[in-house]
Design brief:
The structure is a homodimer of 203-residue chains. With 203 residues, the first copy, chain A, is mostly helical. In chain A, 67% of the residues lie in helices and 1% in strands. Chain A is built from nine helices and one strand, in the order αααααααααβ. The longest helix of chain A has 23 residues, at 115-137. The radius of gyration of chain A is 20 Å and the shape is elongated. The N and C termini of chain A lie far apart (64 Å). Chains A and B meet through helix 5, helix 8, helix 9 and strand 1 of A and helix 4, helix 7, helix 8 and strand 1 of B. Strand 1 of chain A pairs antiparallel with strand 1 of chain B. Chain A binds a DNA duplex (30 and 30 nucleotides) through residues 1, 5, 26-28, 36-40, 42-43, 47-48.
Chain lengths: 203, 203
DNA sequence: AAAGTAGATTAACGGTGTTAAGTTGTACGT
DNA sequence: ACGTACAACTTAACACCGTTAATCTACTTT
């Protein structure tokens, strides 16, 4: 009927997602909200996963734009990394429902979503990797495999967001204080340093 | 009929949880697996959340025992912190389904579980906090609020586990290599250091 | 023997994702 | 102009889900 029902359904789904959260989002509700029968969705999406993945892809794109813009004004890899971290955290709290489907959903069982769609997700990680590699080149960061270190930083940021969104962080801890501590941990964890105590076996 | 049906149901639930994963765990399945009707569960648990929370509490207890034993042989706060981190990561991969309900479940909507039950969860965090406070006392760690820093470290560990369990980590990254990188990040992120570049505005 | 009760069950409600079959309207070839 | 083909959409149905209300059963207490 309408110009592009697929587009309408996606927009409706996104609206409901933001309004009521992922746990209350159902195919039937999306359909009735859009004024169609539930089975209409299956003319445009293989299943619920497929629909969600499309939203995820859009979310990855948004995140990429927000991350790309972040380190522009900062100078030096450490400051740029800090800016990236803050941008990631900001995106997560500003788009909590998006974040939930993007990262907090176990890509269910076998139905892992097509590798082609991973590309947009990976681009975000590459922003971190490149900044880390820069910092290693300039001697600001300790040596290591940038891609692995980027994944570590991502883990830190994701964990922070995930615990926050799940309401698991102790209520006495101020959110912004925690975020600041996390960013500090990220940057100083990678910084090239001269240990005060050069002993202490780590591994 | 049996000695303690509540106990039987919990054991059945835990077995199914490990066998088939949380997403396939239903009240009806637990009941039929145990040889009872679905509604019997409601004689012993207020609802599904209540049952799950009981398992969560048991999981928290297990985690505490594993964490408590970890730093025993290590000497010095940094090495002890590293041991705690490794113990946490080990627990998570060895008890993936447990971990999922313990930390990866949004304590759903209003139904946050009673603060009394949070106590066991908090004890685990306090192990990290105390080790960090120790390290600050001995000058091995930089100053800061130990409870906040402990939460940061926890975020790092949780993020690592969550991404791993959700299958979100790039397949080219070896799990143990990532874990090692994460532990390094945790310890060196807290270490008292003398920066090679004492400039670089962070905030 | 009668009454009460704890433990378990069946039936049912409203919800979910999804598939199969049926309906409707419009465009097109003849 | 008519019949056909096809696309868009709907209704009916299946097999699940968590949960409540009402019922049954067997045993204990009086």
């Amino acid at each position: 009927m309408e110009a592009d029902l697929r587009r309408i359904l996606l927009d409706t789904a996104r609206r409901l997602l933001v309004q009521e959260g992922y746990s209350r989002l159902s195919m039937r509700k999306i359909a009735s909200e859009a004024g169609y029968s539930a089975t209409s969705l299956y003319l445009h999406f293989a299943n619920k996963d497929d629909l969600i993945h499309t939203l995820v892809e859009e979310g990855m794109e948004r995140l990429f734009q927000q991350l790309s813009a972040a380190p522009a004004e900062a100078s030096g890899a450490p400051a740029q990394l800090a800016a990236l971290c803050r941008a990631y955290l900001s995106f997560a709290v500003d788009n909590a429902e998006y974040y939930e489907i993007m990262f907090m959903q176990r890509s269910d069982e076998l139905a892992r979503f097509p590798t082609e769609k991973y590309r947009k997700a990976r681009r975000n990680l590459e922003l971190f990797r490149d900044t880390i590699a820069d910092g290693q080149g300039s001697g600001a960061f300790q040596p290591g495999v940038p891609f692995v270190q980027a994944t570590s930083i991502w883990s830190l940021l994701h964990g922070t967001v995930a615990l926050h969104l799940a309401g698991r962080v102790d209520a006495r801890i101020d959110r912004d204080a925690l975020f600041a501590s996390v960013v500090t941990l990220a940057v100083s964890g990678l910084r090239a340093t001269r240990q005060l105590e050069p002993n202490a076996p780590l591994s």
